[in-house]
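Hi R.,

Here are the chain sequences for the assembly we discussed:
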Amino acid sequence: MGDVVLEMRGISKYFAGVKAVEGMNLTARRGEVHAIIGENGAGKSTLVKILTGIHRPTAGTIRLRGEEVTFRSPRDSQAKGITAIHQEVSTFPELTVTENIFMGHHARWKGLLVDQKAMRGRVKQIVNELDIDIDIDAHIKDLSMAERHLVEIVKALSIEAEIVIMDEPTSALSIQEVEDLFRVIRRLKEAGKAILFISHRFEELRQIADYYTVLRDGQYVGEGSMEGADVDTIIHMMVGRKISELFPKGDATIGPVVLEARGLARVGVFHDVTFALRSGEILGFYGLVGAGRSEVVRALLGIDRKTSGEILLDGKPIVLRSPSDAIKRRIGFIPEDRHDEGVVVNLSLRANVTMVVLKSLCEGPFINRSKEKALTAEYCGKMEVKATSYEQEVKALSGGNQQKVVIAKWLALDPRVLIMDEPTKGIDVGTKAAVHAFMRELAARGVAILAISSEIPEILGMSDTVIVMREGRVAGRFAKGEADSEILIKTATGN
Amino acid sequence: MSKPSVRAGLLRALSWEVILLVILVGMMVGFALVAPNFLKYANIMNSTFGFMEKGIIALTVTLVIICGEIDISLSAMIALSSLAMGLASTAGAPTGVIVLIGPLVGAAAGSFNGILISRLEIPAIAVTLGTMSFFRGITYAVLGDKGIKDYPEGFLALGNGLIGETNIPIPLVVFAVLALVMGMLLHRTRFGRYAYIVGNSKKVATYSGISVANLKLAIFTLNGLFCGIASVLLTSRIGSTRPNIANQWDIEIITAVVLGGVAITGGKGRMVGVLLSVFLLGFLKYGLGILNVQGKVAIIFTGFLLILAVVLPDFVRRVNERFEYGSARKRAI
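And here is the predicted structure of the full complex:
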């Protein structure tokens, strides 16, 4: 084992009294890939934000090379040798690789002039050292997702970082691209960097990680060497129970086909997508990011134009020009981006919950306040939304409660079909379980549910039927019990 | 535990509307002390002639800004609608027809803005920057540097008249009725609720089945209609249509709305605040006039209030958060 370069002890962080992480410990060593494992909401992102100087811990100590430090700003953390490569790569698409790498810390020459030659030289040197194949004068917008990740890594090295944090770097990569990335990571190890690697994918962690730390609900659970570690044990540490206990069992009777898509296509985005959704059924859509799942749903609902294909409701062809057409037919849609598309954070719970069904609460042109309050109370109660009052602004609620508000808003429509895009993304374990229970309950009442998810356990645990998409096409269909995680990944990646 | 929450509660109750009311009352008392004539019923009533037209337009500009848009072609729409009334009057139209034509032309001009903004999705600032010159330009092209003074007696009574034997000016009554209607529209109807939702997030609105385009078209048309109504009162009050009529009113009206607590970024604000702010700015000018202070000095005060209107809500929020954070921390430890 290498020298300890970073040590975090008893780190806690509260946001307005809400615990994000508590009593967190982490030790990073030179030449070691350290996996940070935990579910969404376990506190991984907060940990990264503390290390990169975005958040300051409420309590605890951080030692860097043996000295106690505080990170005053992202720039301060970077100056101390820590760099992070984020999930969504943040680059400037219109600039070249070299320009992106030196963004914010241009090599200066003769005062203010930017020394292009020195910059290119340095980038070339790093690219050669890492043995990666990338055109350093190409514009970022012309590169693939994988190449952009490599650019970020080169950027990390250009500032001579000692600690490199990678936040789910493989989530959007193909298997071949993952191999390339791992080769680069091994080079970084050889160069004596400490790498903090965040991922859910155990197969990957086995390949690349040396050591792991597990977090759950914002707390440190344990750590150990990856060698000889048992995956079941780690999963148990991660979720606090076994996978078989994670998802509620369904007892819905699957009825007739409610919604059917035939040969749906949008040129250049997805092609020939056909599926049937039955009442009481949960149809899971799995695929990698960018496989076209959300795009299919958007076209289905009339948010985007489809170029061909037919949509049938109860066997009759229908045309949906906008979400309002879908709402009239009691088709609900819970979008992926809760903050941007799901709720209006500056408005009250009441205004959010009644948004879709406001017309039915009106007498003439006027909204009936008491009816509105009653409806809000009914659905917030059903969803067990924790709030001090229904007049409270939604932004004051936790992420999990906000998601409950989104679901309450669509429950109020009494939907026949409910389309959910990543329904449990970024919410805590408790709320997640509540959302899953709700999906089951709705299905039992005969609602047809289409759920997009990137989490294999969720897809396997919840779906009656799974459709896997790859590069805009349906790559596979599996009935319950036919697929396991290996089959899903193979179908989704085409390997 | 209870102390900070009581304090935070007090701060929250100290909404911008309450602050405006305190400033308004304080200002009235101040003026009354130095100028005894200030509070004279007839004088106060008379002073409202000077700002009711702007006030009427502020009512719909409130809607425009709440739904996340802006309109800087307000005074140009007044001019265009005044021109239409002038031409109708010259052609011998009776008062009733003239009074109808003004608002109709205003509504048409407003819906022209609305169509460009909602259907072609051009930013409102760009569209109304263009129509500001376009509508005003038409007025100049038709009138040159001449004016139209040829209005029937009955028409001229509207903007200057009082209700019956009372001392209540007609424009004040028109404003009061329209303010009530717009207050109800904004706070009690589906239309008003949708304006808040669209102003906060067009995406959430669309995904929730709200037609953003139709809402915007309706709001801009309504705004044009109100410019037309204001134009009837203004044209009647000054007794003529001139091409430079209502010049530079736009900034004054938008100032009144923002001072009333309507967030320039959209999605937030109440009609009560705008009403208070209309009277605050109107009476400020009137009071300074009585004291023989130049109108330009009033701008300093207006500017100060405006900065306060922008800074104070943020300040109150920060203080609240500090209290909440402080008590939460105690709980956590």
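Residues 299 and 378 of chain A are 32 Å apart (CA to CA). The first helix of chain A runs from residue 44 to 51.

Let me know if anything looks off.

Best,
T.
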